[in-house]
Specification:
single chain, 400 residues, alpha/beta, six-stranded parallel beta sheet, five-stranded mixed beta sheet, 15 helices, 11 strands, binds NADP nicotinamide-adenine-dinucleotide phosphate
Length: 400
């Protein structure tokens, strides 16, 4: 059997996997988390939920826990609780010997610590939270090597690349081609981006996702973060990772090989599919989604990325190439700028300049330790918040 020879290219699940597979789910109440629960409920013979973790929404977590009474449910930010003790309890829960697979779908950089704890316990990870790899990709790689753990990507683009690479040799890869829909503002006149409202930025033409990633899709910072994620997942240099705009979101990404072949993975835009691939690997579940109807689609189109409309992709690439703590600064500055936009305290067009200003002001270190990544994250957030006053906020409300 041929293999892709990188630390991140698993070709077989350990044979001792029990069925049903016992999952710890971080981000149980979010967009990805709800779809994981849905798959578990549709396939009780294949999966059970052993641990459920959410951020602060106790009522939503309780609703999930009621359907899975056997699961240990935990909140990271319960009102009045000590966050350090809560963090420790989560680290212990994901490291429980009973857990077979840890699904990481918690929002943003909060997911880093429990992911590292799970890797240290030798757990395999199904990873949705790209911020973990952006913030600390080197560290994650090192922990995986040390403990023999694997990562199964959930992000649809990386799932597509992963599937294209099954059975291939790493040396046969010429480049990875990430596709992106371009989000809601692909055709909108550039001048009118000044007045983008929160509701407009949260209306993605193809995907239903949580608010942060939906705004990232509108700026295409999401694609920039995915370039860094792909670099760490597949051990491919930045110069061999391209982005192409594909408005239909049917081709989820591609791999070009040295012989001139391109392999692509196609599917309807529905996260159930990449989630199912990660949870059930190396098998496939029956009937997760309908396959795309190609004749009904008629056309699939691709276009070059417009760097003026979407400067975030080049900015992320630069931070990735700079390495060290630079991607952690990028990630945290972006999370903070998006959060300010979602609170109505910053304009949409100010998000990426805020991130750029943080990167330019930062003094990233080359050595990436957990402490350095956390310090860079905190510094970037403070920098973005401190410079928040300079622009006139657009006042609009989240859609009901
Ligand atoms: N949604 C998608 O289709 C999609 C696709 C590809 C990749 N992703 C990635 O997947 C991740 C999750 O995205 P999402 O759209 O599902 O986000 P989301 O809908 O905003 O959900 C976030 C989840 O994380 C929980 N959470 C917050 N802080 C936490 C903490 N400290 N520990 C554990 N859980 C915590 C939230 O709980 P509370 O509600 O209680 O705060 C919620 O359950 C993101 O990194 C995103 O980039 C998402």
């Amino acid at each position: 059997m041929t293999r892709v020879e990188t630390a991140f290219q698993p070709t077989e699940m350990r044979s001792s996997r029990p069925s049903p597979r016992r999952l710890a789910l971080l981000g149980a109440t979010g967009s990805i988390g709800r779809q994981v629960c849905d798959l578990v409920e549709r396939h009780p013979d294949r999966f059970t939920l052993h641990v459920l973790v959410a951020g602060s929404d106790a009522a939503a977590l309780e609703a999930v826990a009621r359907r899975h009474p056997e699961a240990h449910a935990l909140l990271a930010h319960a009102a009045g609780a000590d966050p350090i003790r809560a963090g420790r309890a989560i680290d212990e829960a994901v490291s429980d010997p009973e857990v077979d697979l840890v699904v990481v779908a918690a929002a943003g950089s909060d997911a880093l610590a429990p992911t590292l704890a799970a890797l240290d316990a030798g757990k395999d990870i199904a990873l949705a939270t790209k911020e973990v790899l952006v913030m600390a990709g080197e560290l994650v790689r090192e922990r995986m090597r040390r403990h023999g753990s694997q990562i199964f990507p959930i992000d649809s683009e990386h799932s597509a690349i992963w599937q294209c690479l099954w059975g291939e040799h790493h040396r046969a890869i010429r480049r990875l081609i990430l596709t992106g829909s371009g989000g809601p503002f692909l055709r909108r006149p550039l001048e009118s981006l000044e007045t983008v409202t929160i509701a407009e930025a949260l209306t993605h033409p193809r995907w239903k996702m949580g608010p942060k990633i939906t705004v990232d899709s509108a700026t295409m910072m999401n694609k920039g973060l995915e370039v860094i994620e792909a670099h760490f997942l597949f051990d491919v240099p930045y110069g061999a990772i391209d982005v192409v705009v594909h408005p239909q979101s049917v081709v989820h990404s591609m791999v070009e090989f040295v012989d001139g072949s391109i392999k692509a993975q196609l599917g309807i835009p529905d996260m159930h599919l990449p989630i199912a691939v990660a949870l059930s690997f190396p098998e496939r579940l029956d009937g997760v989604t309908p396959a795309p109807d190609l004749a009904a689609l008629g056309q699939l189109s691709f276009e070059a990325l417009d760097g003026v409309r979407y400067p975030a992709v080049a900015l992320a690439r630069e931070a990735g190439e700079r390495g060290g703590t630079a991607p952690a600064v990028l990630n945290a500055a972006n999370e903070e700028a998006v959060a300010l936009f979602l609170k109505g305290q910053r304009r949409f067009v100010d998000i990426i300049p805020s991130v750029r200003a943080a990167i330019e002001a930062a003094q990233p270190t080359d050595d990436l330790t957990l402490e350095a990544a956390i310090a860079a994250d905190r510094w970037a957030r403070t920098h973005v918040r401190a410079s928040a006053g300079g622009t006139s906020p657009v006042r609009s409300k989240l859609p009901a």
